[in-house]
Design brief:
By secondary structure, the protein is α/β, with parallel strands linked by helices.
Length: 176
């Protein structure tokens, strides 16, 4: 059985850091959202009509391959409201079709902490969002928690928790 753990939340909440810690505990591979984003953006511009379709295709093709090889994956994503449904709803359908065990983990933290984290230098290496004003727009759009309304999610506030503690909590609560 292939497990796909989706760590989602606003930009800068610590999804990739938690994914790496979770990988250490579970042995699951990490396929974070910027891998596909960076691959597609090396050929297409974000404003191109096909850009997001191409990103989704790269991700879904990797998930299908992993399912065939029974590889378990931790992936990361942002839920930014209805615009994100074009990714999450087909992902749920893909999981059913490919018999992938899909688990969602919503990671969130206080607005103050989020606005501090978004400015960290480590975010620049992947070309991640580093602008507090843009992040504030996302917060205003979906709220600080940004929960996907149509899936069951494990909810974790990591404002004061280390990534190791968050990963341990995920392992325990999802029985990984």
């Amino acid at each position: 059985i292939m497990h796909l753990i989706v760590l989602y939340g606003l930009p800068a909440v610590g999804k990739l850091t938690v994914a790496r810690e979770l990988s250490k505990l579970t042995g699951f591979n990490v396929f974070h959202n910027h891998l596909s984003f960076d691959l597609v953006s090396s050929v297409l511009k974000k404003k191109d009509d096909f850009f997001w379709k191409a990103v989704r295709k790269v991700r879904f093709d990797m998930f299908k391959l992993a399912a065939k090889k029974e590889k378990c994956i931790i992936t990361t994503a942002c839920y930014l409201g209805k615009e994100s449904d074009m990714y999450f709803k087909p992902l749920i359908s893909l999981a059913k079709k490919e018999k992938i065990t899909l688990k969602f983990v919503n990671i969130f933290c206080s607005e103050k902490e989020l606005l501090k984290r978004v400015c960290e230098d480590s975010r620049k290496s992947y070309g991640k969002l580093t602008c507090p004003k843009k992040l504030k727009k996302d917060i205003d759009n979906v709220g600080i928690q940004g929960t996907i309304p149509y899936v069951k999610s494990l909810e974790i506030d990591n404002t004061k928790l280390s990534s190791k503690k968050v990963a341990k909590s995920i392992v325990e609560k999802l029985k990984l």
